[in-house]
Design a protein that fits this description.
Layout lengths: L12 H19 L9 E5 L6 E4 L15 E4 L4 E3 L6 H13 L5 E5 L2 H8 L10 H4 L5 E4 L8 H11 L4 E4 L3 E6 L2 H22 L10 H13 L2 E2 L2 E2 H16 L6
Parallel strand pairs: 6-7
Antiparallel strand pairs: 1-2, 1-5, 2-3, 3-4, 5-8, 7-8, 9-10
């Protein structure tokens, strides 16, 4: 979808920080190998609004996106600020998720390799066979492939399949991960790929997975909940700030 060029909006400090964080998220996705060419998309609702989101212009590599490049797009697809192209599937998938999914202030869609590979296996699910996977117990929904998301109806189908969970495994396609904050969403995305990676590696041995007993899984989930903060600081936010410091040392232009 092509949209006419618009002049940049005046940003509040919260909006400036959101732009910087989303640009960082895109760069970090490249760092960890979650990207696929110029495709896939990551969005975040504009702070103070529920009817518009930030999106990178289509055609840029994620490794070159800067905070100032981000478009401001309405949920019905109008370009409100910035210059560039709005890709159709980005609009239809993300607008629906932001509108319909609880907690979806940030929506990340990737074709990252191990999660996508797991979704290609008949009937496969992320099993509670590793400590990392336990963190996703009862928080993953699964949706069958239905072609490209080229209308709002398909985006809405995905959002409804996601329901109240934070992860949607799109079989034969990729993943959709949401969060109330960008740090939370990226934390889920990062550890989802790690959990899928070790499961795919374990399956490659040809031996059966040692799935953990339900009582152990439930007890460990309680422990995870109790460890969500360290010294009164949110663990996911601490992780994201550490990753941004990595970018600050290697490619600080993301924040410009």
């Amino acid at each position: 979808m092509s949209a006419p060029a618009q002049l940049p909006a005046v940003h509040t400090e919260a909006q400036r920080r959101a732009r910087v964080d989303l640009a960082a998220c895109l760069r970090l996705a490249v760092h960890f190998g979650f990207n696929e060419g110029i495709d896939n998309h990551m969005t975040m609702l504009v702070p103070g609004a529920n009817d518009r989101f930030y999106l990178a212009p289509f055609g840029l590599m994620w490794s070159e996106v800067k905070a100032s490049d981000l478009l401001e797009v309405s949920l019905d697809g109008r370009l409100l600020a910035g210059r560039g192209l709005i890709e159709d599937t980005a609009l239809y998938i993300h607008a629906a998720a932001h509108r319909l999914a609880p907690r979806a202030r940030c929506v990340l869609h990737t074709h990252m390799p191990y999660a996508t590979a797991l979704g290609m296996l008949a009937g496969a699910r992320l099993e509670t066979a590793s400590q990392t996977a336990i963190g996703f117990h009862d928080d993953i929904a699964y949706a069958d492939y239905n072609g490209l998301a080229l209308d709002f109806a398909e985006g809405e189908r995905m959002a409804r399949a996601l329901g109240t969970r934070s992860v949607l495994m799109l079989r034969n396609h990729g993943v959709l991960v949401i969060g109330e904050s960008l740090a939370e969403a990226f934390e889920r995305l990062y550890f989802l790929e790690r959990a899928c990676q070790v499961q795919v590696l374990a399956l490659s041995t040809g031996r059966a997975l040692a799935v953990l007993p339900e009582p152990v899984v439930r007890a460990t989930l309680g422990q995870f909940a109790g460890c969500a903060s360290v010294g009164g600081q949110n663990r996911a936010q601490l992780h994201f700030e550490a990753l941004k410091r990595l970018l600050d040392r290697q490619q600080a232009d993301y924040a410009s």
